[in-house]
Each structure stands twice: as C-alpha cells, then as structure tokens.
Design brief:
single chain, 116 residues, mainly alpha, two-stranded parallel ribbon, 2 strands, 47% helix, 5% strand
Length: 116
C-alpha cells in the first residue's frame, strides 16, 4: 500500500495539498507516537490498508489515535481498506476490491473538506 499512498501523495501535491505518508513497517510494536506527531502537524488521518476493514490494523490505529490524539483532529479519521468480501482471482475484480490512488485521493479531499 506504500505505492498507493505515495502515488496519492504525488497526485495531491500537484493540487497543492501536502500529504505526510508514514510507513509503519511493523505493527508490533505499533509506532503510535509517530502517528500522533503527524496528526499534531496535519490535524487529519487517512489510513490506507490492504486488509479487510473489520478487526484490522487500521481499526487499532484509529482506536489509539482517538485515545491519544483526539483533540488534534479537525476531521473524522477515514480508512480505505479492501472491500469487505472475499478477494477474487480475476484481475479486474481484485483491482476493484483493493485501495487505489484515485480512491485514496478522493478520500483525502473529503477529509480536507474540498470535494466529495
């Protein structure tokens, strides 16, 4: 998902939106202080994850952020995850089920209150 996040950041940069991308690399231990520092700078959080939305790492990140950095948020935390369905084998259905740059850019713009 780093390719998607970095691709979205590059597209957003073209439109004057500076996005900070964090690569957590590991989830145990989860680097919550880095996430909180980023939120203190940006006041927003969009999580891009290839996992299903239920009981995912993005759920844990969102929980920790609301616990440790809620007062810094100027918009709801948003997650873009895989579709909540079994992953298909056909390439076009896989592409439709997983996060991509265009959907990530659209979600960031929603969090920035620019476009829906």
């Amino acid at each position: 998902m780093m390719k998607v996040a970095l691709g979205a950041a590059a597209e957003l940069e073209k439109e004057g939106i500076s996005a900070e991308v964090i690569d957590l690399r590991t989830i145990r231990p989860l680097d919550v202080p880095t996430i909180v520092k980023s939120i203190q700078k940006t006041n927003r959080l969009v999580i891009v994850e290839e996992q299903w939305p239920f009981a995912s790492i993005s759920s844990e990140i969102a929980y920790n952020v609301q616990k440790d950095a809620f007062d810094y948020l100027d918009a709801p935390i948003r997650r873009i995850t895989a579709a909540d369905a079994p992953l298909h084998y056909a390439a076009n259905l896989v592409a439709a089920a997983l996060p991509d740059v265009a959907r990530t850019v659209k979600l960031v713009k929603e969090v920035m209150y620019q476009k829906k």
